[in-house]
Amino acid sequence: MAYDVEKVREDFPILQRRVGQYPLAYLDSANTSQKPRQVVEAMERHYLEHNANVARAMHLLGAEATEAFEGARGKVAGFVKAARPEEIVFTKNASEALNLAANTLASRLGPGDEVVISVMEHHSNIVPWQLVCERTGATLRWFDITDDGRLDLEKAERESLINERTKVVSLTCVSNVLGTRNPIADIAAKAHAVGAVMVVDASQAVPHQASDVTALGADLVAFTGHKMVGPTGIGILWGRYDLLAELPPFLGGGEMIEIVEMERSTYAAPPHRFEAGTPPIAQAVGLGAAVDYLNGLGMEAVEAHEHELTAYALDKMASIDGLRILGPTEAVDRGSAISFNLAGVHPHDVMQVLDSRGVAIRGGHHCARPLHKRLGAQSSTRASSYLYTTTGEIDALADALVFTRDYFAPRF
After folding, report:
1. CATH 3.90.1150.10 intervals, the chain
2. Residues of the chain with CATH 3.40.640.10
3. pLDDT tens-digit profile of 222-265?
4. Which stretches are transmembrane (predicted)?
5. Which pTM does this prediction carry?
6. Which of 26, 101, 153, 316 could be stapled to 398 by a disulfide with Cβ–Cβ 3.0 to 4.6 Å?
7. Pick from 407, 345, 412, 331: which is nearest to 381 by CA?
8. Nearest to 347 by CA among 399, 404, 403, 392
9. The CATH number of the domain covering residues in 51-295
10. 25 vs 19: CA distance, rounded Å
11. Active-site residue set
12. Helix or strand or coil: residue 88?
């Protein structure tokens, strides 16, 4: 059946809102996605009918809560084609998942070792590695980008960026600013050839495309619930089980232990080794419902819908005089986030004027300041579509941008 976006939108009551005289055009899904009724109702049912702590409450409600929590783990494992549910670690967000990866892999780093990232990373995939390198004496290096917003693989090859000193490579799968989709499997192969661990930030990938973490070639993959029609407060770190079993704990507390003595403790097997304390139970229930929802739509259909919208939006925006798109200008090997600047207009002004016309976008550096500096841009404006976005909303974006440009810079 054809993808029926209007039918999909019926599941998202917030999309029926108006901003003054204008219908809401929500184009900030790279920031956070909207939530369908099915997710909200699943969390409501949990709190009203099944609420209890997991793993430790030996009564009916505790058993129901544990079953729902671990059931969500299984759903997420299936969604990304993990080998087993125990490869899924729940965190509070993708940032914590990446910090977990950095801090546990730090046990393998020392002076002379190198960690490789890229200049296009979200701060969550820069700062944890900076901190770890400062602590261990390892050296942080990074991929540069080309003028069209792709990883500069030729420069990396000339500089032997990935070499025998490389212990970790950590890259975004899809840039949250440029939309660039990176060749992760190829880079993972190079990392593994020198014995390095491959970490991937898939926060802008898993919500938008069919995902197979094994085929990706990664060892650890981070993503988050709130960008995939799920709730805030829950993130995911997938890891190869044999690697997780070798890594030390990240946080200490209840449930991550095996035996506690005053002198020392032993630790639980993955994933619970990395889930200290009471976990995000209702959030996991909501995430499980989000996975059910996405599976019901079909991720291939979602990806095709977004690809069509992205091509449409890029064409529309390319026709606006004075507008510069950052990153790839064609819908080839790119996601749906489109960052841009209007000549002579600050991104915050663009964002404010568009908001007054019902178009919700984001202005700033999108937690990617080094990337903006590399591009010679102080900041940018970003429009990002998702599975509920329509071509009519893209038209509203284009119309509002022309209005904004003419208001601030009538010379165009």
Report:
1. 5-28+298-408
2. 51-295
3. 999 999 999 999 999 999 999 999 999 999 999 999 999 999 99
4. none
5. 0.97
6. 316
7. 345
8. 404
9. 3.40.640.10
10. 9
11. 367
12. strand
